[in-house]
Prior knowledge:
Radius of gyration of chain A: 23 Å
Number of strands of chain A: 11
Largest interface: A-B, 136 and 136 residues
Strand content of chain A: 25-35%
Low-confidence stretches of chain A: none
Oligomer: homotetramer
Distance between the termini of chain A: 41 Å
Order of helices and strands of chain A: HHEEHEEHHEEHEHEHHEHHEEHHH
Shape of chain A: globular
Mean pLDDT of chain A: 95
Amino acid sequence: MTLRDLISPEQRREFLEKLKKIHLNNIGKTLMDKNDPIHCENLIGGTILPMGVAGPLKILNFKFQISNYYIPLATTEGALVASVNRGCKAINFSGGTTTAVELVGTTRGPVFETAGIKESLKFRDWLDNNFSFLKKGAEKTSSHIKLMKLGTRTNGRYVYVRFYFDTSKAMGMNMVTIATQKIVETIEKAAKIKCLSLAGNFDIDKKPTWLNFIFGRGRRVWAEAIIPEKIVNEVLKTTPSRLYDVWLAKCLIGSAMSGSLGFNAHYTNVIAAFFAATGQDLAHVVEGSLGMTTTKILENGNLYISVYLPDVMIGIVGGGTKLIIKKEALSIIGAKSSSELAEVLAGAVLAGEISLLASLAEGSLAKTHDRLGR
Amino acid sequence: MTLRDLISPEQRREFLEKLKKIHLNNIGKTLMDKNDPIHCENLIGGTILPMGVAGPLKILNFKFQISNYYIPLATTEGALVASVNRGCKAINFSGGTTTAVELVGTTRGPVFETAGIKESLKFRDWLDNNFSFLKKGAEKTSSHIKLMKLGTRTNGRYVYVRFYFDTSKAMGMNMVTIATQKIVETIEKAAKIKCLSLAGNFDIDKKPTWLNFIFGRGRRVWAEAIIPEKIVNEVLKTTPSRLYDVWLAKCLIGSAMSGSLGFNAHYTNVIAAFFAATGQDLAHVVEGSLGMTTTKILENGNLYISVYLPDVMIGIVGGGTKLIIKKEALSIIGAKSSSELAEVLAGAVLAGEISLLASLAEGSLAKTHDRLGR
Amino acid sequence: MTLRDLISPEQRREFLEKLKKIHLNNIGKTLMDKNDPIHCENLIGGTILPMGVAGPLKILNFKFQISNYYIPLATTEGALVASVNRGCKAINFSGGTTTAVELVGTTRGPVFETAGIKESLKFRDWLDNNFSFLKKGAEKTSSHIKLMKLGTRTNGRYVYVRFYFDTSKAMGMNMVTIATQKIVETIEKAAKIKCLSLAGNFDIDKKPTWLNFIFGRGRRVWAEAIIPEKIVNEVLKTTPSRLYDVWLAKCLIGSAMSGSLGFNAHYTNVIAAFFAATGQDLAHVVEGSLGMTTTKILENGNLYISVYLPDVMIGIVGGGTKLIIKKEALSIIGAKSSSELAEVLAGAVLAGEISLLASLAEGSLAKTHDRLGR
Amino acid sequence: MTLRDLISPEQRREFLEKLKKIHLNNIGKTLMDKNDPIHCENLIGGTILPMGVAGPLKILNFKFQISNYYIPLATTEGALVASVNRGCKAINFSGGTTTAVELVGTTRGPVFETAGIKESLKFRDWLDNNFSFLKKGAEKTSSHIKLMKLGTRTNGRYVYVRFYFDTSKAMGMNMVTIATQKIVETIEKAAKIKCLSLAGNFDIDKKPTWLNFIFGRGRRVWAEAIIPEKIVNEVLKTTPSRLYDVWLAKCLIGSAMSGSLGFNAHYTNVIAAFFAATGQDLAHVVEGSLGMTTTKILENGNLYISVYLPDVMIGIVGGGTKLIIKKEALSIIGAKSSSELAEVLAGAVLAGEISLLASLAEGSLAKTHDRLGR
């Protein structure tokens, strides 16, 4: 008898417990709500991440609305929630953060093979000329999907096409896969060009890439704040000049010396915790790590600081967000759209940058980790 | 009254529930074992991820031991566990996967500022000459830490130093931060060189970088298998040649066209699920996304396939692995060292690559996601 | 007396000869035609590069015209001309190379500074809305220039704008600088946004970048050929399979292992020699090094091979092409447009790739260099 | 009759002149010294580049010697020599530039194929254990070569090995190719591992790569100067603060936004002109484009500025430097070693950076190009 023959989480746990002489009580007890639409094969139970909450964080968003948000963060890393919280405090004392967001689109990038250069370029033109036709077919696969545009790069016999979709409130990777499959079938039939792979790493999904950095993917988001010198001193326990020096040496020159696609202090920490809490796909943490923090000491001595994340894959419906416990976390934020959610994320990331850069500037990083850390 | 004044998870939940008019029942009920050493500030409860198990996977590891492993994966992405499972099946029918692992070291990379080039280079020499002295001091901060080596790059007034530590069974980032803080204090005192930032993005922690790709970080791991043509046909429903074509067009040429640091199909999916299940730091998923898959059709028509992950940050003690539910997941694997755990991860990643590449080759990706997906 | 006070090449040479006790006879004798429009300050004479010629190379170009081209190459590297020549021979025996070309545009990318995110995005919209207005002004600076489009990226207070120009038969970097200066003045006046730098490394001129790889710059060019197995054996002294293995291991996997933007064997060798011969700006050799070679063994056993160069900055008038000796070299090629010249370059690059890959495959590289080399 | 049948430059020119109905008088008259060891096949004559001279430039080099250097630059780009000259003037008024240099080694990086991971790692150990043996054999191929070290990266069946050589006064690429060929033959015989390609793009020669940026190649060089505020104002017509802002927005943030490996203003312009004048391999201009400029406004208001070039491939003997006209240009500099030559280059590059950044800061770039340009 093997695991493959078993049909319930209980049976699978029992099998593993006997085989390995172990206990899986906690995994077993971690049952999700029975109404949860769980999509995980060979289920044996669940795992848990502790969840804290940071905030409130005052945000002036792209639609010129001011709101205060609480930010749920699921993490096992001590000091992270405290750090974001301190950043929120500094931001709030400074009047809040201004954010902006822009839909780039969820992308799928199949690769096709032709007989050579001429056919590749002809196919590219065909794609441009048949956009409406392809769009019509793609949008039949779901009422929540719009094909926004396509982009093509040809390289010898290879033609890479990037389809950009508006997937409404969902991150939408699955929808997009199905819609692109439809497009590919249409192309193979109508243009007689063979698709080598539905996903040709020109999407490019869940990998750190310059294509996504430069073109963006999902949503581009920005957040900024001007922290008065006094707040830098009192809340962040450092000076604008010291914090600026750390930023320059670390986020710009250090990142350049390392060949990095992340010119920031620690976007990923905040993104991973935010994604885990709110039911996003954890593999998309990779893409969220791209981006750049900037700082400037203004003429009046205050500190300007901003974050720019070109590749945020996020949604408020679909995927992991369907789980009731994730819905609860989303309700803490209360975002009515994926764009609003992305702006809150950007604000949280900004708070995290402010706090860590300040901590490095005042030299307290090791101490904090010693106290709050693992 | 604000969130900051509240002292228990219950109070915080109640506060948020009233303020936002929401219910946080599931978050509240997701209590961890009371003996859990939870490191998460402003705790309001926990979040859950469904956990499935793939395997068994037959591994011939670096120490020439053969074992069968079950692999816990926590995910909300439908089809992922099934996909890894199918890869395991193909590997097992082929005699198993051979893996190898190598400790690179957990790194911290502070940045120092000097008066200019000459002093920078003199300081670099000082570091080399005082390695034993620094090592001695660093290793006093923990009995689990060894300073392995250091590497230096100078750029004008900036000196970036990368300290490599063996942190035994732990991933060790916190240990390493504390040990490096000690080193920095010694340097500032003995060499009279100012440290600008304890973490100068030359570590480089939680960012996708060529430095980590080329030098490695944490552990380098490899896994490979030779899948007989018959197994490719029968289990994977495709041919070696078709799978090879997808790999070449997607993982190599497609990744190159996109400026990617990941020349693979979807390492990140497996790594994120494995990390979430076993208590690793989810922000390190970013680093795990680096690496390259290779395939080759051998003279007898069988398919050689390998994965190479240069930057795996992983541990079996410390951090999230201390939570009892994570210990349970680790007990399913039963790895006795971080290196063994890394080899199992590499095997699981290989299984994931085999399955997804086959799925793309046979054109079934969209169908599978439609059936098992969100 | 210093060099600055001297007004003729003769005086400067005499000054240096006395000061350093050296002879500069050859530099002095290397006088260009007296009608030459030399743009080099503090002139002391000229330097020489030996020039050879490869070809003929049979090209079927984008306009479906077949021509045979001779290719002048100026180099001090032994074996280079012979290598390109061998590639031409293999191509001709195979029926010639098919090429294609596409104008991307010569770009300038100034950087502006705003008060923050909102103003940055508002400015971006302003640019889009005022494109015709800016275009009109820019095109007044030269009758040879057309503003094709602009692209913007904002990052906090920074706004990077990339202006794409059609500069007709010239490479046009100077024209573009002057036109962009005009645009910048208009912007500063009309939009009240400060320009920090006319050239903000978003052009991006003379640096190896993913922006140029992905978006292209100057012209994108392609060339391909199908070399029958027999020709591979007889002319190239190797087999399609051996050549393919070298290509895969070197140009794809090796380049990926090295974090390269050039996935090719040696584009730069051919480009540097071609640029030196034909009066192109030698600093643009950097950009020409980007790109990718692909090969495939077709079902009939023949070898498909292609080159793709996304960033070719080239012209047939202006700059160094004005020198009479460069005009002579250009007359050997006889290209009537920059696009045609770029296609010839791509053909020459393809010939170089074929020859070097074959040489590596048959293991003769070292021998050849020993015989023909320096 | 074809070009291949002709045996003299005169015959080849005559053939081309008749065929294309053109005149090649200047190319024909550009005869090099008859004693020149010309390595260019199918020779038809030579081409010319105008040569100017910048300087003097006062350098305090790594061996604490102060010298004044004149710098020959061959270019067709108007304003370049004047620009470097202005930079030299600013540097000299500031007491000169401090430079440093370090030999990394000229590298060759063959790729080998094994049966899989275990054999790859075993082979890596074999290489480490047989270093002296390989070194001995390699050094028999030339009395000017020393094998310094080797580095290995394995990826499945692929093993990439990077051999670092000290090639004395020569850039040495040919020497290194021959020595590596010898090593490869030894390996194939003694270790029974097949070499796929003598050059596996792990050298990595003439391509822009992170491997070379991070590890260096040829020589690493640095140069710096402290320009008093007064000199910035009077000679450079701008302010330290304005120049700093341009540097930050262009060389750091702009380069990062573009995915660049060059974090500088225009290293390549100076390197191309210096290489053309002094007989270096023009294809190596690509590697010289890597590197980073830093600036800082010191507490007293003066401007610190430095350049760092990690990948300078340069020599004073061999290759193009054998041509008498190149020897003359080298005699203007008078460097006694390749390291000294590299330091002069770094000084010239620094001068170029200072001048261009100042020009962009004062907004005069377009005007200068309009006046001096093409």
